[in-house]
Amino acid sequence: MRNYKSTRVKNLSPNSVFSNMTLVAQDRQPVNLALGAPDFPAPNFLKQAAIAAIQNDINQYASVRGLLSLRQAIANRMQNRHQITYNPNTEIIITQGATEAIFATMQGLIEPGDEVILFEPCYTTYLPAILLAGGIPRFYTLLPPNWRIDETKLSAMFSAKTKLIFINTPHNPTGKVFNNSELALIANLCQQYDVLALSDEVYADVIFDDKQHVPLCTYPGMYERTITVSTFGKTFGVTGWKVGWTIAPSPLAEAIMRIHEYTCGSGTAPMQEAAAQVLTTTSVNFYTDIIAQYTAKRNYLCDILNKSGLKPIVPYGTYFLMANFFGFVDDIEFCNYLSAEIGITAIPASSLYHNKLPSDIKLVRFAFCKKQETLKEAGMRLLKMR
User: Fold this and answer.
1) Which residue among 235, 253, 281 closes a domain?
2) Is 195:225 a contact under the CB 8 Å cutoff?
3) Does 18 share its domain with 121?
4) 237: left (phi over 0), alpha (psi -120 to 50) or beta
5) pLDDT tens-digit profile of 188-217?
6) How far is residue 248's CA from residue 165's CA, in Å, rounded to a whole number?
């Protein structure tokens, strides 16, 4: 029998590290600090909103663009928070989570041979989305402990071939929050070279220590060239709802819409309606409480890691952190040791980089979006390393 796989599939590597860590977690039952999914119950008011949507018979196909109630809630949120206006009828598209939003954006806007600048380490779906669109990735490597962007180095990556720069702030896995000077630099370079920007801002509400999230689209000259991607699940702890969206000026949104229409079609109507109601009615106190809870979890895990002989790099956003380890050949060996001997799963940082790291940089990623009992159990196990 001939090989029926397309060239596109043959050229994609499986996400083996995440798959292996998941299998390890199932096989050995360690404490799973690898997966970025909360293990605590969703807030009751979210569940009630979903129940109400189903009981009110919002159970048929939603508009291909997504329910207007949710698109309007997102437009209101951008206006109220950032004083920037988007038309919910033409500039907002509801997607099946952020992954579909990114895929549709790349397919809608990238031509084969276009160069796309992205910052690594990065979430594992970014690179395949670029490659499937025929784009050529150009990696800017962020290095610990500060993950800073060098103006000269970044500027040198832009050229007439550059079509888009892909940023993620707050940044998974480093916890970096892009600062004003970095965003202004990116905005200036985008305008100088007539480049689009895709800004993944799914962790915009998970931010610590008085840091501020400022959307890239609010910078002068960036409204017309920025596609903002976000999602409902990260803030509210319901990653399985898969309600995401793109926000972009109508010429860009229409290109994204054509791909979305013929890949996803209509999303899950009751989840969209529940998300609309929650975004519309949730008070600022909820967001303050979420930040306080995650700050406490972050601080607890950082303290445990320090006591265990690791060196955590304190994150300013997301619910991930990177930590330095010592005494092992590489991060794969260390993660296997953590799982087999300590009973903890983590993600080796090398799986999130394309370029090989210097040999003296040894990092793993931990997720702290876990209930306190989970973190305490993880702490007891990690302290065995002392």
Assistant:
1) 281
2) yes
3) no
4) left
5) 999 999 999 999 999 999 999 989 999 999
6) 15
